[in-house]
Design goal:
This is Dihydropyrimidine dehydrogenase. Pfam families: Fer4_20 (PF14691), Pyr_redox_2 (PF07992). The protein has 458 residues and is of the alpha/beta class. 34% of the residues lie in helices and 17% in strands. The protein has 18 helices and 18 strands. The strands form 5 sheets. A 5-stranded parallel beta sheet has the order 5-4-3-6-18, sandwiched between helices. Strands 8-16-9-10-11 form a 5-stranded parallel beta sheet. It starts with 9 loop residues before the first strand and ends with a helix. The structure holds flavin-adenine dinucleotide and iron/sulfur cluster. The site of iron/sulfur cluster has 14 residues, from helix 3 and helix 4.
């Protein structure tokens, strides 16, 4: 067995894909998936499983691919993960399952994420329907606030247990960040839609365009439902608040990506939403959001530079996305910190004043602390700046839940099962942990659903 030679999935040519929003990776053919699956050692103590936040039987589903039994493989995957086509595309595998694979010591780890995606796509193409098994119908009602991965997972688990589930969502489409944040070229929206359709088949009632706290008060939900799950994410953008933030051309990544993804600005004028894009775009930040904003701007025809105050090693974005961004032509200006925006007389952005940085000792996050270098100021000319430096919780809704305890950063405090200080209110996902990952949000939704069942059956 050739241990070293990892079989990579097929990807579209960077020059061609940088001009459109179609998916970058085309995944594996059956043949390539089988070859990659055969590299797995089927370890007696599979370290990869320990690295997976939902403990998928990884050697189990890979073995079935190697044996060409794709439907069996899908069954195993689905037992642990309700959204494998999504996780196979967006999970940070290099720090989870693949990071823990023993083959790291001998060569390249098994491409677990790509195999997961292959099986999920194969099942979809072959119209393999998930079994709908609903336990005895129960006459208890649950409200879920927010249709992101945490809310949708909680809804699916509770509906399968026979509860009546209503999901309230602010936006016009369910999916949370999967719809409004992660672009089509990384996660096609048809995949999210399929998962949501399955929820509808389970009998989950999804109510769109209803911001809880505005259109409906939490008190009304508390009176009407036997339990509530809050999965509203942490979508309020953070700004650096440097001089000139009010200039035309300064965006938050959140607004920029929502316009493009949810409101389909990339299809303007076919869709009504425009997005202002200059010749030059500078994106500030080093996470997945920064990569997504930069690659979206590039596809709209701009010359794009990412500026980040540390070095590439400290960037929190997935390695694959940094690699894809570079291949497509996004430039990286590292060890650089913006200090003010410069505008013209009409109030339009024309440049960013920056300072060069060096790295000091590791800070609380374990990453080396960036320190400004004296007298190193310089200007980057640009018409558009997109800040992708993180998010905060939305205070409005939470303040309306009387007695709901928050932590010092404003996120909801829960016990390890997702129960909040109000006994019939549960919470999970980014609104509890701060910005995290899709799989962790799903895990939180699943855990809280289990606890809600116990709570209501007591
Ligand atoms: C641009 C971007 C790229 C990312 N890339 C990755 C990646 O590659 N891999 C990865 O694992 N993670 C990634 N993440 C992080 C990941 O998407 C989140 O951790 C995850 O979506 C959190 O799920 P959630 O259910 O907690 O919240 P969200 O996905 O934020 O969903 C919350 C939902 O609640 C709704 N809502 C909010 N307030 C209300 C209200 N008052 N009433 C009703 N509804 C409300 C929102 O509209 C939203 O639909 C990325 C995040 C961003 C922003
Ligand atoms: S650790 Fe790697 S080689 Fe071992 S079972 Fe898991 S995926 Fe296969």
């Amino acid at each position: 067995m050739a241990l070293k030679d990892r079989v990579n999935p097929i990807e579209r040519n960077p020059k061609e894909r940088a001009k459109d929003f179609s998916e970058v990776s085309l995944g594996y053919t059956e043949n390539l998936a089988i070859i990659e699956a055969k590299r797995c050692l089927q370890c007696k103590i599979p370290t990869c499983v320990k690295g997976c936040p939902v403990g998928i039987d990884i050697p189990g589903f890979i073995k079935q691919i190697a044996n060409e039994k794709f439907q069996e493989s899908y069954k195993i995957l689905k037992k642990y993960n309700a959204l494998p086509a999504i996780c196979g595309r967006v999970c940070p595998q290099e720090v989870q399952c693949e990071g823990a694979c023993v083959l790291n010591k001998m060569g390249k780890p098994i491409a677990i994420g790509s195999l997961e995606r292959f099986v999920a796509d194969w099942a979809s193409k072959n119209n393999i329907k998930d079994e709908i098994k609903i336990e005895k119908k129960l006459n208890k009602k649950i409200a879920i606030i927010g249709a992101g991965p945490s809310g949708l997972t909680a809804a699916s688990e509770l509906a399968k247990s026979g509860f009546l589930v209503d999901v309230y969502e602010t936006f016009s489409e369910p999916g949370g960040v999967l719809i409004y944040g992660i672009p089509e070229f990384r996660l096609p929206k048809s995949i999210v839609k399929k998962e949501v359709d399955f929820l509808k088949e389970l009998g989950v009632n999804i109510l769109l365009n209803i911001p809880v706290g505005n259109a409906i008060e939490p008190q009304e939900l508390l009176e009407k439902y036997d339990a509530i799950f809050i999965g509203v994410g942490a979508g309020t953008p953070k700004f650096m608040n440097i001089e000139g933030t009010e200039l035309n051309g300064v965006y938050s990544a959140n607004e920029f990506l929502t316009r493009i993804n949810l409101m389909k600005a990339y299809k303007f004028p076919e869709y009504d939403t425009p997005v202002k894009i200059g010749k030059n775009v500078v994106v500030i930040g080093g996470g997945n959001t920064a990569m997504d904003a930069a690659r979206s701007a590039l596809r709209l025809g701009a010359n794009v530079t990412i500026i980040y105050r540390r070095s590439e090693e400290e960037m929190p974005a997935r390695k694959a996305e940094i690699h894809h961004a570079k291949e497509e032509g996004v430039k990286f200006q590292l060890l650089t910190q913006p200090i003010s925006y410069i505008g013209d007389k009409e109030g339009n952005l024309i440049g960013i004043k920056c300072v060069k940085m060096k790295l000091g000792q590791p800070d609380k996050s374990g990453r080396r602390k960036p320190i400004p270098i004296e007298n190193s100021e310089f200007i980057i000319p640009t018409e558009i700046a997109i800040e992708a430096i993180g998010t905060n919780p939305n205070k409005l809704l939470l303040s309306k839940f009387e007695g709901l305890k928050l932590n010092k950063w404003g996120y909801i405090q829960t016990n390890e099962y997702g129960q909040t200080s109000i006994p019939k209110v549960f919470a999970g996902g980014d609104i509890v942990t701060g910005s995290a990952t899709v799989i962790l949000a799903m895990g939180a939704g699943k855990k809280a659903a289990k606890k809600i069942k116990e709570f209501l059956n007591d």
